[in-house]
Design goal:
By secondary structure, the chain is of the alpha/beta class. Helix content is 40%, strand content 16%. The strands form three sheets. The protein has a seven-stranded mixed sheet, sandwiched between helices. A four-stranded antiparallel sheet has the order 9-10-13-12. The radius of gyration is 21 Å and the shape is globular. The protein binds pyridoxal-5'-phosphate (PLP).
Amino acid sequence: MPSTAHPEQIFRPEILQLSAYHVPPATGMIKLDAMENPYPLPLALREEIAGLMIQAPVNRYPDASATSLKSSLRQALAIPDGMDILLGNGSDEIIQIIAMAAAKPGAVLMSVEPAFVMFRMIATFTGIRYVGVPLKKDFSLDLELMLSAITKHQPAVIFLAYPNNPTGNLFDPEAIKRIISATPGIVVVDEAYQAFADTSFIDELSKYPNLLLMRTLSKSGLAGLRLGLLIGRPEWLEQLEKLRLPYNIGIMTQLIAEKVLQHTAILSEQAEAIKSERAKMNAFFATMKSIETYPSKANFILFRVNKASQIFQALKQRRILIKNLDGTHPLLENCLRVTVGTPEENAQFCTALQSILSEIA
Ligand SMILES: *Cc1c(COP(=O)(O)O)cnc(C)c1O
């Protein structure tokens, strides 16, 4: 007899209610929506990578523990002695591993709002209850509110992005430390934008037994590879390792990442170029009376206008794609987020924005 099963009967209601993470088509667009590094790797390095690819034994499973890549990462990122590394297919996968591990009945995953949307989405995927604590109007941490939410909900895990996405700011490190000390669970400081921030919690790992640090290569120039890492004490990472699918980091990713990590100077030069372009864009925004910007330590800038959706659409018509955050959270009303691109891309964006603003004024 043919099955009459429908997704509605089989899948969890919270999954049926989700809308999938939307990635807009970007072919032929100036792509300033996803915090990618706009610069390709130098040709000589790409040729070296091509040589590695010719020899890669793709008929074999990759090294399940990625030993060689991990030791390159340890060196390149100066991971403190005594701390372990867990690798993820992007740091998104690491968020998922942590949420799965913590999802006891009634357990809470906490973050701030607005924050990286995957914290909340992955909580739903994994069946852990999500609590989002609003930031203040200037997007700083509301420490009193955080501390009372911690007392009330006793979260198993708190995710804090440092700098925060989509707002770009760094939270007060002293406030984060208060949160780490006050919470009964673990705190994951997500440093996806560390390359642009000039600061890190990495030296705090040894001081706080419940602190874990997450990094990714995505925003530094290797978004297409999908490699994220979690740094922390062996007692936490040993347990999380059990949930990591054995071959989550493919052979191409292992080989390419390791090769690029032999040339970290290239990535840091690109990060420096992005930081100086960020300063130029801030200077441009400062000349625009109808725009309010928020200080950013990341490779993107959040700004507020009068008619965000109209401006977003007008930019799109000029084949410039940024991110429209209007309607995603009350604090983000009329907010847009632009990723810092190449000097040419940024100039085109600024010119387009200027003329759009004068047209609709
Ligand atoms: C982009 C981003 C990530 C995800 O990075 P991947 O490693 O590409 O999965 C994680 N956290 C924050 C805050 C981000 O903005």
